[in-house]
């Protein structure tokens, strides 16, 4: 009987030890995930706040000359430890001069041409003989870019169609790019009632409406807060060239749970109404150079940039022209994910402004890029709406739109 009791006690103690170890490991990795890999600190502003127990922090590297976003800056490192002794994470803090931008909030029409002809799918075609063929089966994939036909560079789908017709029944050589790798394939077009067909569905441009986030003093712009992906493949579109156009809000389709709303706008595709040249399409948004026409639409007011460690839960504002005029709408910042791997989901926000709720039901498509403002600083931009709750959405930290590395 005594042996059984001792064995039982050992079992309980062992179970307790394993449970405590498991909780410790869970807490270790939870705390590690909460600490960002890097901070940006405005010169003269306080650095990252002291962590709560069981994490301790110590500056482990002297301030050194470095660079950030093409500006002269200084950096130092903070070493975080768990329970005061176990290494947790090394975080680099970059100190920069105060940065100011002109906040946007106005709608912009977006027109973008792809760098090559994008394949969105393949399918079957019916030949003149009545039989079904699939010439591109297993040779071409959705997401491929067709760069050339028979050695000739192409940029538009009309050029692809014309080249295939000219080749007729002879084999066609397509120059493809897939996941950064270039190669060639040979295939034969099918003679159909409509001409020679490869059974490849393609796209060479896209257009839509978004919101301007900011202008810089040198005339550069940032918009959307997320990249432009192809609607069929879901992949980030490779940009050849693109433009922003003057746009006005025509109608608002309210968001409802399960059904995202949207801004219906009137885009004026005229040379005189070009607002900017799009030069980059990245995960953090679209970027380029603004025209004088765009700069004239914004006030001269500038706002200081606020970095992620300055953001707090609570009241903030989003700037939008969803009503037809630019104004600020009240929101609540509910969560701040400083170490979120998805660059577009650093902030979770909820719309609380009665007017915006009555007008749009919350956040709607087309509001992506609306600046997020807190304590008089621009701290981020709206990126996505929660499908099942249009009053809530995600936002990107503004530093990820300003930092070239954040736009990769």
Automatic annotation (TrEMBL):
Coiled coil: none
Alphabetized UniProt keyword annotations: Hydrolase
The keyword Hydrolase appears for this protein: yes
Pfam families per record: PDZ_6, Peptidase_S55
Enzyme class of the recorded protein, top EC level: hydrolase
EC annotation from Swiss-Prot or TrEMBL: 3.4.21.116
Domain of life: Bacteria
Record domain Peptidase S55: where: 179-408
Record field: transmembrane: none
GO molecular function: hydrolase activity
Protein name according to UniProt: SpoIVB peptidase
